Amino acid sequence: MMNLPPDPKRFIDHTGSIVFVEPLSWDEIKHRIETGDLNFGRSREGLREYKSFKSHICKEWASIDSYCKHHYFNIPFTLKIVDGAELKFVDENSKIPQNENPLVFCENDYPYYFDADIIHWVLWSIEEPPQDEIDYLVKKKFPSEKFDLLIMENPNKTVKSVYHLHIFARNKPTP
To answer: Has residue 1 got a pLDDT over 80?
Structure first.
């Protein structure tokens, strides 16, 4: 069971997942990142949808990591028997096909519970990319003259063998 600092906005449910009862504001997210409290979570409904998605993936794939490697990078899978079930599996030594982009930047399908004006994207890569590549992609999508940005690597990753960063963005407030 996770040991979190007391917080009236979140709790740990019976499965060990972090649930937020209210959305976080930009300033709250920024403060949590600055102080190292990276234990973000979804709303009850968002978590229900995320768990339903993961449950579906687990019926077809040997792991969420294998699914992500195939889904984001088109790495071929093989079939593997696990506990009597035939599941899709991507070998950990598999390489990205040459015509595939090694960096995938997309909106998070199951975002954390933030105020509605906050956009939650994820940058995926098989290996940690150079910082200049990260900066280029993020600034291309979210130019600093138009957007406020926060970038975070979650230490509590669900997908452990695929490097990914969380990018939070919002339109800059008008003066």
So the answer is: no
Whole-number Cα distances in Å, 122 to 45, 108, 116, 127, 171:
20, 6, 17, 14, 17
2 pLDDT above the threshold of 70 = no
DSSP assignment letter at 13: -
Give 68: exposed, middle or buried? Use CB within 10 Å, 0-12, 13-18, 19+.
buried
Nearest one of 175, 112, 104 to 141, comparing CA atoms: 104
Residues 6+ apart with CB under 8 A from 43: 19, 20, 21, 23, 113
Over residues 142-174, the pLDDT tens digits come to: 999 999 999 999 888 889 999 999 999 999 988
Q: Is the pLDDT of residue 119 over 70?
A: yes
- Yes or no: say if 173 and 157 are a contact pair by the CB < 8 Å rule: no
* Other CB atoms within 10 A of residue 146 CB: 9
Residue 14 has which token pair? 């019976």
**Element at 11 (helix H, strand E):** strand 10-12
- Are the C-beta atoms of 59 and 35 separated by less than 8 Å? no
